[in-house]
């Protein structure tokens, strides 16, 4: 897994100095709400009957020439929110350019913070009381004129919110301001969503290629990578932990340390769906090789037989231009199947199947290990792992497409239909496929000698190039058989060397055929064409004398 170390700015140290000055004049509360609003009227009534006391400022205010123009009073009531505004004369002495506003809810002790930029000696911030109806302690603090990341209290007030509705802004840290991270205006600090939430926005940092989102609910925690492209990001994130409030922390990459992330924004999402899904596990190679997986978005999904694998690869990532295929392995117990999804213009979009009937599957997504390409032993790099559940009751292990066997391709389908036309039984259909492959595919001696197996070897490639080795003969034959409605599988074993041939279901039995051997033979390092039916439905005992079967592949 990607090593993630979370670092944060030095915690704010608040130093209180004795308060001694009074704000001289001004109306008590700024009235910006609709006059007819019942809650606004309730807040105003509270203020009219209360003994409002002028807000006192700390001695630090005189040291830097700070005043608070709003609010004016130490205790007051509002409908959900109010404005904090002020000015500072001696800003050149300050070690930071932000005013810190801290809000504490007396209801449960929870906190919220604002960093209000100080611009031209002024600061202004709308303060949203984030926890609904109740009392809040609000503290306004100004940056130290001596030490960075230290703040001195300017004023403290007690505010009553008469509005029961929970409203919350996105909490932004200093990192967000420094890297100009901004979430889309449609994103609030508290939202209700049904199963998913869109993380969308921008960041003005050329080095930021991804963000880290930490999601938590109680003791449950997971992390999700969100790709950044040209300074923008837009990813739908599942709310993995079912019904209830999820806390999402958006983190930006540290500028000077690789694989370190700093907290930049926080929001809370109340999930109304009771569906519990599982996070996808990503390896370090996932980010190193520039992958972005768009589908599936989560593990634990229930599906009907198949699912879409979709994503893209950063064109500037290592090996991106050489990655022409992404592979999916599905496992159910001891049963395994492999699928190949082509990559075109650095994007991939294809299906994988849960072919072994109903139940839970482990799914692994692989990228080819490019340094080992074109050898007899192919190596893969794991980039993602998740689980899925198949609700389809049908076991289709011998009839669905699989790696190298594109039985769902239109060209394969047309050829299969053409070969099987006017064939009245399954054995004759299988024989037509055997005859076509054995007569039309040339054995590739050069590929055998150089052991130049490629990650994109397949039935379609064999059909187009009209050459291959035993694996390629088998890919094409099985694809044609499955496209024609016959169950088929690849037998692997030994026949003088590692070898592959075909078994297809005919009249309730597995019929053996080896179109590679049926196409001809090798003599003095050359392929000699010599078509024969000897290896179509051969006598089992005779066949065992030359072929030793060790297993099957789907």
TrEMBL record:
Q: Which regions form coiled coils?
A: none
Q: Which UniProt keywords apply?
A: Signal
**Which first-to-last residue range defines the signal peptide?**
1-23
Pfam families, alphabetically? Transglut_core
What InterPro entries does the record tag this protein with?
Papain-like_cys_pep_sf (IPR038765), Transglutaminase-like (IPR002931)
Residues forming the Transglutaminase-like domain are 462-517
Q: What is this protein called?
A: Transglutaminase-like domain-containing protein
Q: Which organism is it from?
A: Fictibacillus enclensis
């Amino acid at each position: 897994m990607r090593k993630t170390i979370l670092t944060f700015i030095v915690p704010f140290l608040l130093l209180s100095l004795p308060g001694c000055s009074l704000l001289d004049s001004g109306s008590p509360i700024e009235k910006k709400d609709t006059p007819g609003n019942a809650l606004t009227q309730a807040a105003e009534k509270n203020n009219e009957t209360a003994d409002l006391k002028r807000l006192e400022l700390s001695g630090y205010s005189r040291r830097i020439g700070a005043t608070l123009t709003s609010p004016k009073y130490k205790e007051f009531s509002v409908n959900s929110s109010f404005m904090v505004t002020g000015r500072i004369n001696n800003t050149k002495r300050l070690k930071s350019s932000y005013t810190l506003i801290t809000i504490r809810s007396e209801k449960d002790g929870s906190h919220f913070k604002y960093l209000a930029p100080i611009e031209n000696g002024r600061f202004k911030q709308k303060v949203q009381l984030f926890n609904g109806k109740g009392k809040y302690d609000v503290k306004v603090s100004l940056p130290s004129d001596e030490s960075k990341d230290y703040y001195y209290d300017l004023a403290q007030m007690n505010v009553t919110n008469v509005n029961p509705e929970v409203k919350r802004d996105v909490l932004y840290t200093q990192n967000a301001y420094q890297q100009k991270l901004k979430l889309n205006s449609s994103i609030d600090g508290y939202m209700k969503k049904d199963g998913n939430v869109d993380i969308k926005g921008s960041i003005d940092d050329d080095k930021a290629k991804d963000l880290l989102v930490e999601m938590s609910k109680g003791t449950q925690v997971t992390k999700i990578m969100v790709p950044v492209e040209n300074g923008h990001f837009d990813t739908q994130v599942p709310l993995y932990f079912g019904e209830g409030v999820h806390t999402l922390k958006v983190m930006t990459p540290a500028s000077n340390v690789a694989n370190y992330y700093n907290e930049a924004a926080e929001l809370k999402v109340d999930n109304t769906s009771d569906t519990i899904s599982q996070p996808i596990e990503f390896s370090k190679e996932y980010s190193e090789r520039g992958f972005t997986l768009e589908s599936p978005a989560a593990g634990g999904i229930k599906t009907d037989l198949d699912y879409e694998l979709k994503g893209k690869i950063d064109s500037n990532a290592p090996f991106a231009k050489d990655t022409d295929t992404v592979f999916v392995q599905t496992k159910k117990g001891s049963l395994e199947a492999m699928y190949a999804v082509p990559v075109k213009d650095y994007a991939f979009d294809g299906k994988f199947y849960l072919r072994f009937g109903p139940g839970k599957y482990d799914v692994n997504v692989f990228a080819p290990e490019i340094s080992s390409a074109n050898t007899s032993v192919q190596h893969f790099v794991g980039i993602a792992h998740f689980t899925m559940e198949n609700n389809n009751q049908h076991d289709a292990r011998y009839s669905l497409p699989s790696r190298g066997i594109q039985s769902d391709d239109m060209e394969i389908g047309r050829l299969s239909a053409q070969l099987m036309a006017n064939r009245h039984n399954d054995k004759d259909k299988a024989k037509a496929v055997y005859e076509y492959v054995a007569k039309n595919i040339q054995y590739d001696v050069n590929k055998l000698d150089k052991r130049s197996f490629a990650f994109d070897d397949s039935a379609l490639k064999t059909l187009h190039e009209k050459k291959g080795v035993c694996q390629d003969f088998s890919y094409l034959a099985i694809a044609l058989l499955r496209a024609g409605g016959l169950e088929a599988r690849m037998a692997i074993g030994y026949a003088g060397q590692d070898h592959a041939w075909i078994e297809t279901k005919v009249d309730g039995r597995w019929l053996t055929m080896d179109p590679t051997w049926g196409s001809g033979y090798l003599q003095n390092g050359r392929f000699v064409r010599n078509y024969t039916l000897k290896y179509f439905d051969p006598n089992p005992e005779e066949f065992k004398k030359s072929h030793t079967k060790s297993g099957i592949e789907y």
